[in-house]
Design goal:
Elements: E1 3-9, H1 13-21, E2 28-34, H2 40-46, E3 50-54, H3 59-69, E4 74-78, E5 82-83, H4 86-97, E6 104-113, E7 116-118, E8 130-136, E9 140-142, E10 151-153, E11 157-160, E12 165-170, H5 173-193, H6 200-217, H7 225-257, H8 263-271
Parallel strand pairs: 1-2, 1-4, 2-3, 6-11, 6-12
Antiparallel strand pairs: 4-8, 5-12, 6-7, 6-8, 9-10
Length: about 270
């Protein structure tokens, strides 16, 4: 049963080697290099990966292009800041060779902030506790989004593995806030493209709901101060994304309202 590893990278030379080093148990590694200007492609080829170079404005485009290039019946989808340990590698191999009744598995994820694994309360795409990362070739599709596109899983659910995937998301809380700012900017573009500027009142209500979901429902309270900050960031994401989307829509409307300059007028101006 052939297994492909899929990694999408964008200027990830600092962490890509550690990611790829743990994928030697796979039959092939496919790395999608999106507008990389560093050594990401070189590092990927050093580990025997097949590199797909391109310009992919949407994260969904990167993932779809990479999945199309995978030759394995099963695909293991990994981010550059994640690592597969020996125990998880063994469990993955055993799962797909055991003639599973389903078409996709969830993998538990230990998301680290610094040296601490945070297992509760994640939101706003900053981290997760489990995700569908091991699946048959045709089992996963993504909606068109610039960042963290929602996925649709086809077929039957095969269960969740026991050994966690390790994700080194942020070296500290400051880095997490900076990453939130980047994610919110991309989400704002998606909202603006869909014409969904919304209202500040709605964003505040959404922020309160996200905070409660992360801190109470997802038990972020068990993570102490860090759990509170993660819940706060999840709520702040709704406000930041909405405010930026409204700015973008306003700017686009202003550009669209500008009077068009007729080609003939341009010619007259040039002769003068």
């Amino acid at each position: 049963m052939k297994l492909s590893a899929l990694v999408c990278a964008h200027n990830d030379e600092a962490r890509l080697a550690d990611c790829l080093r743990g994928l030697s148990f796979c039959d092939e590694i496919v790395v999608v290099a999106d507008r990389c200007t560093d050594r990401s492609q070189e590092i990927a080829r050093q580990f025997g990966a097949r590199v797909i170079d391109g310009i992919f404005p949407l994260e969904s485009q990167r993932k779809t292009a990479g999945l199309s290039a995978c030759l394995g019946e099963w695909v293991l989808e990994i981010e550059p800041d994640e690592a597969v340990g020996a125990a998880l590698a063994y469990e993955i191999r055993a799962a797909i060779h055991g003639r599973p009744a389903g078409d996709w598995f969830d993998l538990p994820v230990d998301t680290f902030v610094g040296d601490r694994a945070v297992r509760h309360g994640w939101g706003a795409g900053l981290g997760e506790t489990r995700a569908p990362r091991l699946y048959r070739q045709a089992a996963k599709r993504w909606k068109a989004r610039r960042v963290q596109p929602p996925a649709t899983m086809d077929g039957r659910y095969a269960g969740v593995l026991e050994t966690p995937l390790v994700r080194r998301a942020d070296p500290d809380v400051g880095h997490a806030f900076a990453r939130l700012n980047q994610l919110a900017a991309l989400r704002a573009q998606d909202l603006a493209d869909a014409g969904r500027g919304g209202r500040l009142r709605d964003d505040i209500l959404a922020a309160a709901g996200r905070f409660w979901t992360c801190y109470v429902w997802r038990q972020g309270v068990r993570e102490g101060e860090l759990g509170f900050l993660i819940a706060l960031m999840a709520g702040l994401d709704a406000v930041l994304s909405g405010a930026r989307a409204r700015e973008l829509l306003k700017a686009r409307a202003a550009i669209a309202a500008e009077p068009a300059i007729e080609p003939a007028a341009l010619g007259v101006a040039a002769r003068r």
